[in-house]
Amino acid sequence: MANGSLWIGTSWKMNKTRDEARQWASAMTTVAFSERLQPFVIPPFTSIAPVAEALAGSRLLVGAQNMHWAEAGAWTGEISAAMIRDCGATMVELGHSERRANFGETDETVALKVATALRHGLTPLICIGETAAEKADGRADEVLDHQVRMALSSVPADYRQSTVLLAYEPVWSIGEGGTPATAAYAGERHAAIARVAQETLGRPVPCLYGGSVNAGNCRDYVDQPGIDGLFIGRSAWQADGYLKIVGLCADACA
Ligand SMILES: O=C(CO)COP(=O)(O)O
C-alpha cells in the first residue's frame, strides 16, 4: 500500500465516442472520492476536451494516451504536449506495451517524451513491463531495470522533484487472454523497480500495477507494500466498474 496517494485510473485505449465519454464522466461528478485516492482517466485524444470539461471541479485528473516529443512541426498524425495541455489534460501515458509492440515505441522515444512532458507541466505515467518470453528466460528484472533507467535518466535537472509515475504492466497480463500477475509476483517486481527508480532519480517514484485488474483482485494488489495504485483497462471502461474498484480501494485504505 502507498504511503502517499493511491492512484486509481483507467485508460480507455481506442474506445468511446465523445457522447459515451461524457456519459462516463458525468457519472463521476457527484462521487465523493476518498482523500487517500488520486483518481484519473485517460481517454482517447478526441474525448480529452469534453471529459476535462465535464470533470472540471472534480478530483479526477485527465490524461492523454501518447504524445510526440517535438514542440511542433511536420509530424503528420501526431499530437504535441501543448495541444494536450490545451485540451485540459495534466497527465500523459507514455510507453504502453501496445505502443511498443505495434507502433515502434522504444525506450529512446519514451525518454524523449518524458523530458518534453515535464517541460510542459504534464505528469508522465511511464509504462514498463516484461514480455512472456523475457519472464520465461528469468530476465524480468533486467528488462525492467533498463526501461526504468532509460525513462528516468531523461528527467531534466530542473524537474527532478516533479511528479513522475511508473506503471508496471507485465505484457502477458494485459487485455483479452492476459493472465493477471499474482500479487506476490507483482510485489517482487515493484520492489525491484523501486530500487532502480530511487537509484536513478534519487527519490522514491510511485509505481502503479496494471494488467487484468478487476474488482476481484484489486485489493490484493493495493495490499502489497510497493504498489502505489492501479492502472485499469477493461474493468473500468464502464463507470460502475471503475467506481466499484475505487470503493474497494478506499476501503483498503480506511
Ligand atoms: O493495459 C492496461 C492499462 O493500460 C490494462 O488493460 P486490462 O486491464 O484490460 O488488462
TrEMBL record:
Localization annotation: Cytoplasm
CDD domains (UniProt xref): TIM
Reactions accelerated catalytically: D-glyceraldehyde 3-phosphate = dihydroxyacetone phosphate
Keyword Isomerase: yes
Pathway the protein acts in: Carbohydrate metabolism; erythritol degradation; Carbohydrate degradation; glycolysis; D-glyceraldehyde 3-phosphate from glycerone phosphate: step 1/1; Carbohydrate biosynthesis; gluconeogenesis
SUPFAM superfamilies in alphabetical order: Triosephosphate isomerase (TIM) (SSF51351)
Pfam families: TIM
Keyword Cytoplasm attributed: yes
EC annotation from Swiss-Prot or TrEMBL: 5.3.1.1
GO molecular function annotation: triose-phosphate isomerase activity
Entry keyword set: Cytoplasm, Gluconeogenesis, Glycolysis, Isomerase
PANTHER family (alphabetical): TRIOSEPHOSPHATE ISOMERASE
Quaternary data: Homodimer.
Protein family per UniProt: Belongs to the triosephosphate isomerase family.
UniProt protein name: Triosephosphate isomerase
Protein source organism: Spiribacter onubensis
